[in-house]
Amino acid sequence: MEFGPYLLLASLEGALMAAVLSLTAVGLSVVFGVMRVVNVAHGEFFMLGAVIAWWIASLAVGHPAIGFILAIFIAPVVVGLIASLCDLTILKRVDYDPERTIVATIGLLYIIQQVTLMTFGPDARPVQPPFNQRLSLPWFEYGENGFQMIWPWGLGTTSYKLFVIAAAIAILLGVWAMMSRTKIGLYMRATQLDKQTAQAFGINVERVYMLVFGFGAALAALGAVLVVPIQQAHYLMGGDPLLLSFIVVIIGGLGSLAGTVVAAVLIGMSDGIISMFFSPTLAKIISTLLVAFVLIFRPQGLFGKRAS
User: Whole-angstrom Cα distance, residue 1 to residue 239?
Assistant: First the structure.
């Protein structure tokens, strides 16, 4: 088999990872950008979205698409409400202090994890995708007769994976439109720029914080709902999304949505390609080294603004 078709397949797998990672990391970036706190429990909200999606899909009757549609609307809302409640009862009481918030969200991480374990059990739960047609991957090669299309035998992807990539792009465009074109987005950007000035103009900053924390968790849960038909849901699945989201946010620039998306594409594509031809461990090592180089040569990240 030629190298090219495998590279195309690896790129599609990388794009799939980048799509889900973008949603998860953007949620983390929005929380940090507006609230200036680090949410260590962000990966557990991702896990909670996947587990709730499995639970909804297991209760739904009929075609798998029914359960999936219900899950993609219900799970992010439920997780967002849980996160908003956590902000109201925990983070608000520690006055959003950065150090105490880290400790509080670490405790929240273990609470969510153990409650999920006691409620749903330790087993990994599969979710059937709403559609999953096998698609062959075409490849073009130049020969004596010019460019020719080649269909590699047995090498391809699925329609659902392509749907996840397209859905993530549409959701990210919706997030951008919400942040830049709506009154809620204006309140969030005003609070991010200067909390005191926003309060002086009548913006309820605590309510904005509650909405932002819930919104960030809902984005993570939405990414989990999209990926759970590919990866099984289990109570320990929040670790990798949290680590990779931190890597993406650091590289892209803390609080920069554009930088977060660009960094997610870079990390996702490199991880998919390197994992295909070498090993997943090497991909994680390269991602960690990339963070180290960014912190050394550009501490504010690729798109972050240098502190004045």
Answer: 36
